Amino acid sequence: MKIRRALISVSDKTGLVDFARGLEELGVEIISTGGTATLLRQEKVRAIDVSTFTGFPEILDGRVKTLHPKVHGALLYLRGNKQHEAAAREHGIEPIDLVVVNLYPFQATVAKPGVKLAEAIEQIDIGGPSMLRSASKNYQSVAVVVDPADYQAVLEEMRDRDGETTLKLRERLAIKAFLTTAEYDRAIACFLNEKQKTDTSFSLCLPLVSRLRYGENPHQKAALYGNFAEYFEKLHGKELSFNNILDITAAADLIDEFSEPAVAILKHTNPCGVGSDPDLREAWLKAFATDKQAPFGGIIICNRPLDLPVAKAISEIFSEVIIAPEFTPDARALLQKKKNLRLMRALHSAAPNEKPELDLCSVRGGLLVQDKDVAELERIETKVVSQRPPTKQEMAAMIFGWRVVKHVKSNAIVYAGPDRTLGIGAGQMSRVDASRIAVWKAHEAGLSLDDSAVASDAFFPFPDGLIAAAEAGATAAIQPGGSVRDDEVIGAANERNVAMVFTGVRHFRH
Fold first, then answer.
1. Exposure on the CB side of residue 245, measured as CA atoms within 13 A
2. pTM for this structure?
């Protein structure tokens, strides 16, 4: 289909002048609106006002300018259809063969802090999506461009084909336009739904980042969608796998719990060990000491730049991924000697006041959607339920364990000191079994649980879990509380002189 007439109305004017000039050189008549027309004329590109083309002025502060039969008829009538062509002639409708539109910046507007509802509503584009949809519906005859990145491809085809475009290109551009309007409408609906406190439906439209070699297992297909690259940059190593990406996300969520220098080791999204120390190498040694077997092939993350001493210590074991906000040049040079080791730079951490992301979980026939678990432990000193309050050291150990147990699969038990994990039990059907595993792991690692704190992601349903922890050496316990047998559990703690805190917050991880 040869392009003889184009309608251009864009918010993002990147590359527009060169594109319009290229169209003009190919003999294309250009119709335009508002600021787009003004810019083109300033750059000596001839542009006809849409009001001249339609014979109808822009009204209502520009809210109505392209919503006109001479625009949408020009886009929608079927070329070659005798009835459509007769109606077009009868009503003076001249064909528009190319639409170049990008939309009012609604997403950018609502991303600004404190944006008012009225301001956001004014950035809801009506005419732009309408033209995109009309042109896309008739892609057999009409080309539609919503992304400046496609300007060059359109010009190249037109130059090579005497002003024509191929059906394949028009189809690809139409799909992109529909995806754009879908995401635009989704952003509007989500914003208004949040503002008006309604609950209707849930939708997602995310760009493809990459196709993955396979999913959780080799027989499963997989792909990554969204904005993962805004959070992590791969500096070295093999292509990321599906499981790598899950582990990287779990590691980042865990390390975000710590403002002090910390190192965490994870395997299958579960922490193997976490340590904190002003000297990052010491933090690594504390984390690794928790379990020296499980970290093989695991994920290591730290929240401070990774230097050569830490790199030397870490490089003694095989790891799949190492994540840090930065790597010193000598540390990076050493680690890059392992050609398959993936080095990831963490570009972004969760800000304290940042709106929590959503957690999604596929279920048969749909999705479960919930807020991310970002509940913080507040005023812990007021939540003591035992006769004996915890010492300063016990309090620090409880807080450390509580930060970690939140990221361990349920049922979860963590034994901790003030700056390190000592034993971790994850994913057991019985909380007592989780505690037994944590105790066993600590003993295997040669770590004493004497004077440790035990953290439980959910309440102890019976006193036996608390008793087992005390027998293992714990002198403090932190748990949500809420069992019908809380009084019995508190009694067991008091009998054994264990300081205990009820957080009132549960951290299940299924």
1. 22
2. 0.72
Count other Cβ atoms within 10 Å, centred on residue 55: 9
Q: Residue holding tokens 């190492």? A: 322
State the residue for tokens 């080799």. Answer: 218
Cβ–Cβ < 8 Å for 71, 89: no
Looking at residue 380, the DSSP 8-state letter turns out to be: G
Active site annotation includes 268: yes
Q: Parse the chain into domains and list their residue ranges.
A: 5-196, 228-346, 380-502
Average pLDDT score, the chain: 89
Please tell me which residue in 13, 68, 84, 137 is annotated as part of the active site.
137
pLDDT in tens, 257-305: 999 999 999 999 999 999 999 999 999 999 999 999 999 999 999 999 9
Distance CA 309, CA 280 (A): 9
For residue 216, the number of C-alpha atoms closer than 13 Å in the C-beta half-sphere is: 4
Q: What is the spatial distance between Cα 411 and Cα 430, in angstroms, rounded to a whole number? A: 7
Q: Is 68 a catalytic residue?
A: no
- The CATH code belonging to domain 380-502 is 3.40.140.20
Residue of 268, 292, 312, 383 with catalytic role: 268
Crossing angle of helices 127-137 and 167-196, rounded to 10°: 140
List 453's β-bridge partners, or say none: 416, 476
Nearest CA-CA partner of 9 in 124, 119, 131: 131
- The CATH number of 5-196, from 3.40.50.300, 3.40.50.1380, 3.40.50.360, 3.40.50.2020, is 3.40.50.1380
Mean pLDDT, residues 455-471: 92
Joined tokens for residue 472: 């293992």
Strands (E), 330-395: 342-346, 358-363, 366-371
Of 188, 60, 59, nearest to 121 by C-alpha is 188
CA within 13 Å, CB half, 417: 18
> Which tokens in the block code for residue 426?
């994850």
Residue whose C-alpha is closest to residue 331's, from 280, 258, 266: 280
